[in-house]
Amino acid sequence: MNATPTVTVIGDGQLARMMHTEAIELGVNLRLLAGARDSSAGQVIADVVLGDYRNLDDLRKVAEGVVTFDHEHVPTEHLHALIDDGIAVHPGPEALVNAQDKLVMREKLQEIGAPVPPFAGIQSVADADAFWDSVDGEVCLKATRGGYDGHGVWFPKSKEELEGLVEKLLGENVPLMGEQKVPFVRELSALVARRPSGEVRPWRVVESVQRDGICVEAIAPAPGMDAGLADYCQSLAVKIADELGVTGVLAVELFEYLDEDGMPQVAVNELAMRPHNTGHWTQDGCVTSQFEQHLRAVQDWPLGDVDQTAPVTVMANVLGGDEDPELPMAQRVREVMERYPQVKVHLYGKTYRAGRKIGHVNVSGQSVVKTREIARSAAHFLVTAQWL
Amino acid sequence: MNATPTVTVIGDGQLARMMHTEAIELGVNLRLLAGARDSSAGQVIADVVLGDYRNLDDLRKVAEGVVTFDHEHVPTEHLHALIDDGIAVHPGPEALVNAQDKLVMREKLQEIGAPVPPFAGIQSVADADAFWDSVDGEVCLKATRGGYDGHGVWFPKSKEELEGLVEKLLGENVPLMGEQKVPFVRELSALVARRPSGEVRPWRVVESVQRDGICVEAIAPAPGMDAGLADYCQSLAVKIADELGVTGVLAVELFEYLDEDGMPQVAVNELAMRPHNTGHWTQDGCVTSQFEQHLRAVQDWPLGDVDQTAPVTVMANVLGGDEDPELPMAQRVREVMERYPQVKVHLYGKTYRAGRKIGHVNVSGQSVVKTREIARSAAHFLVTAQWL
Fold this sequence. Notes:
D-amino Acid Aminotransferase, Chain A, domain 1, globular, homodimer, 9-stranded antiparallel β-sheet, EC 6.3.4.18 (chains A, B), Dna Ligase, domain 1, 5-stranded parallel β-sheet, 27% strand, 3 domains, 33% helix, Rossmann fold, 12 helices, alpha+beta, 5-(carboxyamino)imidazole ribonucleotide synthase activity (chains A, B)
């Protein structure tokens, strides 16, 4: 009996695409529920079922082996229905809700003693006013569901602006919460993978460089980080994975800020329960990539080593600009390869669109400054066809 | 204009499968001519055309973008026909004939001054007798076409045995040559990749450990190798790639032997013009794997860095044994991962059969002895479900 194990991935984006890369080598059949055959993952995977992740019949049609996700948008009740059918779903709905609902997540994190900024659910303009007063106007307003990459986050500059926003958004049935703005010095990301049977492995903590709410760069390991704080971030991510019962990869996005004594501290910003943009560097900088580890974890296979294979690895996103240059992408790739033979190019098979993640590059080296420079220069050329 | 570049691969084995792994990340559409959908590569690739590589119509139907190969068995005249159609074929038929015909290859290598053992074409029993005498009976008889993994090679112990073999094989229309047996101390492999426009990059020379004519292990770099000889092997492989006009990956399999003064020397054994078993270690031990480099080279893209990412990487083949153990392969993989979190498992989606290559493992480390031990132990368990 040598039946090939199957992992079914719901969602057809670049994360599913890059899971397939690893599934091929592991000898795992990757089965995909895709919205379209020409989607990022649908283009490259053999075993594709077309359908809608919001439709339980489609989910039932595709589900085989272990079910996992490329995104967090599958309705919770459908996941329960699949589990009732006897299907293994990882991460499970009880864990996943913490990545779907920011208010649920913050309440849970507070309960387990994880550091979160002061927050409150906002069901009315009166709630908003009270929260404004409690944090001296340092308010970040968030949609509790559906936000990503800076969408669903607002920074009102006055109480009036907050009230107007809350009135409008509640009118549109957007569930809201307020959170105290964190005067952070930088953003970090602590990734771990966890198996259903409990094994957890954390990668090194990385610095996540953001622009307009979108990750543009990840530097592994986070440069100049206090060793004690780095250890704390790893153990915090392990604790969150354990306490929330996460299976697969968990990304804990963190703010690093200075406390009253000028000492660096962290607070949790967001959670994601799937391979994450801040973990793409592991493809070329680590013994086990996040995509391989995710496939191992959701199948409850033993996890792989997470040692880095270079002193520093930098990931830079290729984000579509305002205008797609005339020079074809394949030609841009050639020019980047010509200049930088050490750059690893990863493209998602997506059309160019402003702000869209269409690929990333990974570069490993000895020096943070030099390696960042190369990664940024390569990514910039892929976007603009111009050298920085 | 962002048309996705396409590479068409003829042949549905594990080499095509592992090319797809890299094609996904490079954003290259990999199109496959497969004999069967459930072949090693056909299982995992989206863009598959079913057909026969010996049939020109099938080749014409599939050919798009650049055409390359998973094996060397496409008839030369079909390759010329494709080129006449305006298709880019890499490696081209003039180069490829040297990997298809051992006699043509040896004549060419002799012409360019590459070290080859004494050899002669054998068209008759008289030729065989003359060759036997010229090399004092140290004869290796080879089929000039169609051999692989020890098939098509004979070591006659007497002149009579040679005569009998030659008579029988010529009667079956097997084209033959004789080669002087090399009293080698070990086998080496020098891999390079070359672009049509001329750039060539050699990987470090590896030791190829063979059993019954099949590679069972590759150790990168070849342990205890004389630095001057290692440089010579690399430059020899570069020279062969240049002189033969190879495009894509070229593997130069070498014998290392001691000359009359006890100094190590090398002679060329075989050539392969595609990613090669002795280059699988590059997937986990090198900045650029042979599969990525092959895709870059055949498209005439700039080649990637070939630096090693660890002091030593060992590849051990998973070769089917006499009996497929009861413990399912997926369970064997789990046990290997449990014991060795540093082992990278690569499976080909093939059914178990005695002597068949069904996968390999790569292990990186600091020490050759320890790393080999782990690689061998892991591969042995995947084959037998028993620990060494």
